[in-house]
Amino acid sequence: MKTNKIYAMMIVGLIALFAPSNAQAQKSGVKRTDLQKHDLSIPGKEMVQARIDFDAHTSFGKHAHPGEEIIYVLEGALEYQIEDETPVTLKAGEVLFIPAGKFHSANNHTNAKATELATYIVEKGQPIMIMKK
After folding, report:
1. What integer is the mean pLDDT of 72-76?
2. Cα distance between residue 31 and residue 29, in whole Å
3. pLDDT of 14 over the 50 cut
4. Where is the signal peptide (predicted)?
5. How many CA atoms lie within 13 A of 31 on its CB side?
6. What are phi and psi of 17, to 5 degrees?
7. Fold category of 29-131 in CATH
8. 8 Å CB contact between 91 and 116
9. pTM reported for the whole predicted model
10. What counts of helices (H) and strands (E) characterise the chain?
11. Could you give the angle at the alpha carbon of 21 between the alpha carbons of 4 and 16, nearest 5°?
12. How far apart are CA 1 and CA 9, in angstroms?
């Protein structure tokens, strides 16, 4: 009986420990939906496609990919910063190419939702994203 109480207390403690980080992730206002992933005819390469939704006034911090990223803005407007280059703001229907390994960020500075379609041509078996520390 005592052992069950101890286990129950440990579970409650673990839930409390991890709940804040999960809540923060949900509050970030950026949602990624993976759409498709396929091997390419180029050995060691794959294509990954995702829809990324940004709530108003949200950002996704500096990160890079182990390959190229092609962005198509579906809705709203997003500002992209690629390393030390001048930021560029794209509206629905506009595109952007991000070279492999370049750290970049995306920001929605508007009062409306914004959405991008991201297509990655990346090294197979590598993490899709590396966050800058």
Report:
1. 98
2. 6
3. no
4. 1-25
5. 11
6. -65, -40
7. Jelly Rolls (2.60.120)
8. no
9. 0.77
10. 1, 10
11. 25
12. 13
